[in-house]
Amino acid sequence: MLGHPFGAYRIDLAFPAARLAVEVDGWAWHVDAARFRADRRKGNAVTRAGWDLLRFTWHDLDSRPSETVSEIAQTLARAA
Question: Mind listing the domains of the chain with CATH numbers?
Answer without folding.
Answer: 2-79 (3.40.960)
